[in-house]
Design goal:
The complex is a heterodimer of chains A (752) and B (171).
Chain A: H1 16-21, E1 36-42, E2 48-54, H2 56-60, E3 64-69, E4 101-102, E5 108-114, H3 117-124, E6 128-133, H4 140-143, H5 167-173, E7 176-184, E8 196-203, E9 206-211, H6 216-227, E10 234-236, H7 253-265, E11 269-272, E12 287-295, E13 301-312, E14 335-343, H8 357-375, H9 379-385, E15 390-391, E16 396-397, H10 403-414, E17 427-428, E18 431-443, E19 449-456, E20 461-464, H11 474-486, E21 493-496, H12 513-538, E22 552-555, E23 558-561, E24 564-570, H13 571-577, E25 582-589, H14 593-598, E26 602-614, E27 620-630, H15 637-656, E28 662-663, E29 668-669, E30 687-692, H16 716-728, E31 734-735, H17 739-743
Parallel strand pairs in A: 1-11, 7-31, 9-10, 13-14, 20-21, 27-30
Antiparallel strand pairs in A: 1-5, 2-4, 2-6, 3-5, 7-12, 8-9, 8-11, 12-13, 15-16, 17-18, 18-26, 19-20, 19-25, 22-23, 23-24, 26-27, 28-29
Helix pairs in contact in A: 6-7, 8-16, 11-12, 12-13, 15-16
Chain B: E1 14-20, E2 23-29, H1 35-42, E3 61-64, E4 67-70, E5 83-85, H2 99-106, H3 116-129, H4 135-141, H5 152-165
Parallel strand pairs in B: 1-5
Antiparallel strand pairs in B: 1-2, 3-4, 3-5
Classes of the chains: A alpha+beta (752), B alpha+beta (171).
Chain lengths: 752, 171
């Protein structure tokens, strides 16, 4: 009997012990001899220029080593492209302390470096900055007038597809029409760990950098380009990342400042941002969606129009896929999609969990609910009726799509058939009860990734790739895959990631890491297996002498004949027979280009939400979410479930709580702390039921994985908003749906 | 106020005694040092996390004489004679994990791990307080500890697991 594989089984995290004992070290926690501490001084105006910086008082504080400003900073690379990181959008990247120009409120204007963090923080408060303020604009509702189609597309981000059919004419003729505007507020990632960098001055011009980053190679490349350093001299090591959700995709300004100071002072430097300063760089862009659906009386879609405007900075065109989902979630012959940007005096937005998708899908799936209402059709039936069998944006079949099964399984678990159709028709005690649903979709991707596997004669296996684990479970799934390749217990496997000296890996994002790093680790392990198998066959009296690799199995530290598992040879014995103390192979796994050309690959979900609303007080609870996810092979149901739950909690935050509020007179985000920027807490989260729908996919990645990091959030806010409409009869199209909006008398329809 | 002899002179330090994870220590501290900064920066106990420094997130939760506190809001010099237990002090000397640590692993009650030490300390004190009898009360009384990864259902499950097994109380 072959042992049950680790892959597919609910395994506990291999880094669990490190995380529950405090041993796991994050960027600000690595010690260094003679470590100096930097504290950032944040700018006070949204646009203009610095006319003077007085650092006298700060410099006079005992223990202060240096105050860096644009006036005295060391020289860095001149050309823009040298400052562009791996995932920079088109434009001129922000350069900290570059010159006197102020581009956004909260921009770093000085770095105070001192012997200890308390002194640096105190001295930073003594830096006096004078400004000449210019006219600024941070209000998207005004800037939308000047929205433009980004002239240069961002790499990896598909612009809207060309229109198909004639959406305008079809809409005009459609018996049923829904036209509305849906908005989503600015949100900030707010990982629990604040952005931080510890630069260890190793001497001889060498640096070891511990950065909060989702891709150590991105930080390494950035540092080398900006400061003219060689990759041999800069090693970035970030084994643990305290959440990031996209805020750590691009190197943030604390990395630049810490490296700059370390090079100038020739000593180790740490820079940790404050929670306030976590609101001074990446964020999810405020986005306006206009959606128009036209349908026949029976609910069959005749036309879809979806136009979005996303905020960006004045210096980079940050782009996301916001509207494309509306062209592929449903069958429709007449579709026109548009996406524009509007510039504000803000820092460039960044990818934040499922960038773009929950914004556009909130709009589409809210509009579908409105259409179901108008047509008098059950919202689930409406979706099934308009089900898309192929990707109509690109005219391609899917690698796999089990959304229909997701709808069915989710509806069964939730008890959807017991829903009474009319809004305000379900009530329990003081509370109105509402049930809503939505669909979710996210692109399934694989990226070229390299990995190394090393089997040593003590029976231990090490696998390594430069990728990150930001809480996603990467360590664990790689250990599962590697252990299975040799029939070893997971305890025999060491996984090394988050180190720029390891084989090349892209940034950890886009839900592609499991598929990419997992496939690379498997390929490296298989290469080791081949060498090992040659040794095994060559061993004296080997029972595998005439077998080939396809006819053996790796079980319990042995290579055995699949047909006769009692006959085999131990891994260690095989290595000894071949005189090998270690077998090491590095392999690169790449997506199948032919498949990519021929097929589209997406993950899907069906989300069902129950809300309860106290009608008098407006107090709202999300009492139940059922989400059925079709995402190919599930490597580890335990960590996978956690991933999806996390995404659902994010969807709840988006629906009900998260909103970075700006005072447009000051051009400044005002609720820059965790007391006033609300994220879900334990009391907000009730039952979340995750169903993984059986889905076979052999085309997205060699290991059958489609990815899970993002799908949990997409559609969740729409399902909740639809449930709120069902409970209260109020259709709220501006996220988050806060109590004031619920208690407000129904706002005038924001029709076009 | 005594005047300082030179601008470079050390600020006045206050000497206190603090038992940290069972070991008594005599510490000369600047009066404005928070318990959190003392643990992380002076004692090298980085298991206690800084998530906001304003008492808004709970990542810095430690057990102070068995009660859960936000160590970022506690001035170290005010804790003279107290006993502090951090995440590093929960496992037994032989490495056996505290039942709450084990439950967090088994229930997958964390993802990135950054809020986890605070969650675990908070959960241990919660059971000591004996106010939470059901999941709703656990949720309410654990709401001072934010988990941005959204592991809340699993955190509740971990606490329920320890409650059900009558797990050992905090050391």
């Amino acid at each position: 009997m072959l042992k049950e594989p680790h892959v597919g089984a609910p395994r506990s995290r291999v880094d669990g012990r490190a995380k529950v004992t405090g041993e796991a070290k994050y960027a600000a926690e690595f010690p260094a001899p003679g470590l100096a501490h930097g504290h950032v001084v944040s700018g006070a105006i949204a646009r203009g220029r610095i006319t003077g910086i007085d650092t006298t008082a700060a410099c006079a504080v005992p223990g202060v080593l240096e105050v860096f400003t644009h006036e005295n900073r060391p020289r860095t690379a001149w050309f823009d492209y040298k400052h562009r990181d791996e995932v920079a959008p088109p434009g001129s990247p922000f350069r900290p302390l570059y010159d006197e120009t102020i581009l956004y409120s909260g921009q770093p204007v000085a770095l105070v470096v001192a012997e200890d963090s308390g002194t640096a923080r105190h001295a930073a408060s003594l830096v006096r900055v004078e400004y000449e303020a210019g006219a600024h604009e941070t209000d998207l509702l005004r800037a939308r007038e000047d929205a433009y189609v980004p002239p240069k597309r961002r790499s990896g981000i598909s612009p809207p597809p060309k229109p198909r059919g004639d959406a305008v004419a079809a809409l005009a003729e459609a018996p049923l029409r829904v036209e509305a505007e849906y908005r989503i507020a600015t949100e900030h990632h707010n990982p629990m760990e604040m952005h931080a960098t510890t630069v260890v001055w190793e001497g001889g011009g060498k640096l070891t950098v511990h950065d909060k980053i989702q891709g150590v190679l991105n930080s390494q490349g950035y540092i080398c380009n900006v400061f003219g350093l060689s990759k041999e001299d800069v090693r970035v090591v970030s084994p643990f990342v305290g959440g990031a959700f996209g805020s750590g995709l691009r190197p943030q300004y604390q990395l630049f400042l810490a490296v700059m100071a370390a090079l100038a002072l020739k000593r180790s430097v740490r820079v940790v941002l404050t929670r306030d300063q976590m609101f001074t760089f990446s964020h999810r862009p405020e986005t306006i969606n206009q959606v128009a659906l036209g349908a026949a009386a029976d609910g069959m879609l005749r036309a879809i129009r979806h136009d979005a405007i996303g905020a960006t900075s004045r210096f980079e065109d940050h782009q996301e896929v916001v509207v494309n989902w509306s062209g592929l979630l449903y069958h429709c012959d007449n579709v026109e999609l548009g996406y524009k940007l509007a510039q504000l005096d803000i820092h460039t937005p960044a990818d934040m969990r499922a960038p773009g998708a929950p914004l556009g899908v909130f709009a589409l799936e809210s509009a579908m609910d409105e259409l179901a209402d108008k047509a008098g059709i059950d919202p689930l039936e409406l979706r099934l009726k308009n089900y898309a069998e192929t990707d109509e944006n690109e005219g391609k079949p899917y690698t796999s799509k089990e959304l229909r099964a997701a709808y069915r399984l989710g509806a069964e678990r939730f008890g959807w058939s017991r829903r009474s159709a009319a809004p305000r028709s379900m009530r329990e005690g003081r509370e109105l009860v509402g049930w809503g649903l939505a669909s979710g979709v996210w692109e399934a991707q694989m990226q070229q990734t390299s990995a190394r596997a090393v089997l040593t004669a003590d029976g231990r296996l090490e696998v390594a790739t430069a990728t990150a684990d930001i809480g996603t479970g990467t360590y664990t799934i790689l250990a599962q895959i590697a252990a299975d390749a040799f029939g070893l217990p997971m305890e025999s496997v060491t996984v090394r990631i988050g180190d720029s000296s390891l084989p090349k890996s892209p940034i950890e994002g886009g839900s592609w890491t499991a598929a990419s790093a997992g496939s690379a680790v498997q390929a490296a392990c298989h290469a080791v297996r081949e060498t090992l198998f040659r040794h095994a066959r060559g061993a004296e009296g080997s029972p595998l002498g005439n077998a080939d690799l396809d006819h053996v199995a790796f079980v319990d530290g042995r290579i055995v004949l699949a047909a006769d598992p009692d006959r085999g040879i131990g891994l260690i014995e095989a290595m000894r027979a071949g005189g090998a103390e270690r077998i090491e192979h590095e392999q690169t796994a790449s997506p199948d280009k032919a498949n990519q050309k021929r097929y589209s690959s997406y993950t899907h979900s069906a989300i069902f939400a129950e809300v309860r609303v106290d009608e008098e007080l407006g107090v709202l609870r999300v009492t139940c979410i059922v989400t059925a996810v079709a995402a190919g092979k599930i490597l580890n149901p335990k960590t996978a479930r956690s991933q999806v739950i996390g995404g659902v909690v994010w969807g709840m935050g988006m629906a009900l709580e998260e909103e970075t509020l700006a005072d447009h007179r000051l051009g400044r985000f005002m609720n820059h702390n965790l007391a006033e920027y609300h994220v879900p807490v334990n009391a907000d989260v009730h039952d979340i039921d995750v169903i993984f729908v059986e889905e076979q996919d052999s085309r997205t990645s060699p290991i059958g994985v489609k990815g899970l990091g993002e799908i949990g959030i997409v559609g969740t806010a729409a399902a909740i908003a639809n449930a709120i409409h069902h409970a209260t009869g109020k259709r709220i199209r501006d996220l988050p749906i806060t109590l004031d909006k619920l208690l407000e008398r129904p706002p005038a329809e924001r029709a076009r | 106020m005594p005047t300082q002899a030179t601008p470079q002179a050390e600020p006045d330090r206050v000497t206190i005694t603090l038992t940290v994870n069972g070991k008594p220590r005599s510490l000369a501290l600047e009066p404005w040092t928070t318990l959190l900064d003392l643990l992380r920066e002076e004692l090298g106990l980085t298991g206690t996390k800084k998530g906001c420094d304003h008492g808004q997130c709970g990542a810095c939760t430690v057990l102070l004489d068995g009660r859960r506190v936000n160590s970022c809001l506690a001035l170290a010099v005010m804790q003279d004679g107290a006993s502090v237990t951090t995440i590093e002090g929960l496992a037994a000397a032989d490495g056996t994990l505290h039942p709450m640590q084990t439950a967090f692993i088994e229930q997958d009650a964390f993802q990135c791990g950054y809020c986890t030490p605070g969650q675990i300390c908070s959960a241990i004190a919660l059971l000591e307080e004996d106010h939470a009898q059901n999941p709703d009360e656990i949720r309410e009384l654990m709401s001072g500890n934010i988990c941005r990864c959204g592991a809340y259902p699993n955190i509740v499950a971990a606490i329920e697991q320890v409650m059900a097994s009558g797990g050992e109380p905090a050391p």
